[in-house]
Amino acid sequence: MTGEYWDKKRETMKRNELEKLQLKLLIHQIKRCYNQSGFYRMKFKKAGVRPSDIKSLDDFSKVPFLFKGELREEQRTFGIPRYVVASGDLIEAYATSGTTGVSVLSFWTRKDRDYIIDLTARTLWAMGVRPGFKVQNAFSYELWPPGLSVHQAVQRIGGFVLPIGSGKNILQIKFLTELQPDVLVSTPSQALRIGNMLHEMRINPSNLSLKIGAFGGEVGAAIPSTRKKIEYLLDLEAYDYYGIIEIGPTFAGECKEKAGLHWSEDCHLIEVVDPKTGERVSEGEKGILVITHLTKEATPMIRYWTGDITEIEYEKCGCGRTHARSPRGILGRTDDMIIYQGINFYPSDIEEILRSFPELGSEYVIYFEETNEGEKCIVEVEYNSAFCDPNEIQSLKDRVAERIYDAIGLNLSVRIVDKVLSPHLGSKVKRFLYT
């Protein structure tokens, strides 16, 4: 670790040097997957691809995408799936949260665990976490394991961990006020709930020691109005955080510039592709995030189709880091896309509007409802009693609906209620309900 960097040599590599490293690691990974995994050998042969065909990063587009459904089918058929490569050295297994369906297993070797701890330490260091900091860890410690990776990374940095895990908001506030941590790590929705509870309990956030917040597991922290609201409620600097279990629970995050997610390109090959053609999109265009493990041993993902929508940018960040960034973070998920009256939008589009109204609370949900006039798209959101006059709710509804129309061109029905029962899956929250 050197000054602003956890690993300056790797984080500031020149683009041509980084791509040479990626190609070397990629060729090795493709060969070992072909030789040691019946799953990948069958998949590559079906696509007419052999390891010797990959001589450049451009050649990699010949390799087929990998979809979550294939991983689930492997589990259903074989139990321990054939995409496990280093089966003799396995030390643990984790699973996805199940937000979008049946959980998918991810296996890890000792080397795999060390690499994700080091990358997690790199992300936290970029946000400003330093030796001696107390970190309140409200990420899950269960089979969806970002809590564990953060816990061990903080210790590697030389910090002190408060391992509360997700939920338990009264206990979270007790630790925030009594033990005075420097950092809070949680989902954005939990950060908002904690912040609102602090204000309801008349606890001034400026009396806390919080300096930094790392918020991931959901879209939210990169949305300007959501970030602003979290920072106001908790009086800290809020940073976007990203990970998925199939790749790594905590491997991309923002730096102090807050200029988007930094991708760890020395360990992962990052692509953004057109969802219809599968071709790589131009820099700055939206597409599907596709990730390939360059160094993972046990369950390497090769061209894994994450379903997350983002953009990619290669310009060096103001912090000096040279790896690719997603300047606006994750913009949504393909399975969260809502189609109404021929127009596509995402819950994050609505969230950005709702968070800009101080009269509204943290929880909201979007759903369809059958009425005598046909199917309607409903946005149901809580009001914030500290800022909302009950006599002004109708006016507030009209203003929110008008802002939504201005932003996405749709007349959605807005309902402002005392309590929204948003379904939570572990530490995550589901914003769109399919009916």
Task: Supply database-style keywords.
2 domains, 4-stranded antiparallel beta sheet, GMP Synthetase, Chain A, domain 3, 435 residues, globular
Your description of this structure?
There is one protein chain. The chain is α/β, with parallel strands linked by helices. The chain has 2 domains: 334 residues, 3-Layer(aba) Sandwich (Rossmann fold), CATH 3.40.50; 97 residues, ANL, C-terminal domain (GMP Synthetase, Chain A, domain 3, 2-Layer Sandwich), CATH 3.30.300. It has 11 helices and 22 strands. The strands form 7 sheets. The chain has a 6-stranded mixed beta sheet, sandwiched between helices. Strand 5, helix 8 and strand 6 form a beta-alpha-beta unit. Helix 2 packs across helix 3, helix 8 crosses helix 9 and helix 10 packs across helix 11. The radius of gyration is 22 Å and the shape is globular. It starts with 7 loop residues before the first helix and ends with a strand.
Ordered list of secondary-structure elements with their pairings:
Blueprint (H helix, E strand, L loop, with lengths): L7 H4 L3 H22 L1 H9 L21 H11 L11 E6 L9 E5 H18 L6 E4 L8 H12 L2 E3 L6 H10 L4 E4 L1 H13 L11 E4 L8 H11 L2 E8 L3 E6 L7 E2 L5 E6 L13 E7 L10 E7 L14 E2 L5 E2 L4 E3 L2 E3 L1 H8 L5 E12 L2 E10 L9 H16 L4 E5 L6 E2 L2 E2 L2 E2 L2
Parallel strand pairs: 3-4, 3-5, 5-6, 6-7, 17-22, 18-19
Antiparallel strand pairs: 1-2, 7-8, 9-13, 10-11, 11-12, 12-14, 15-16, 17-18, 20-21
Helix pairs in contact: 2-3, 5-6, 7-8, 8-9, 10-11
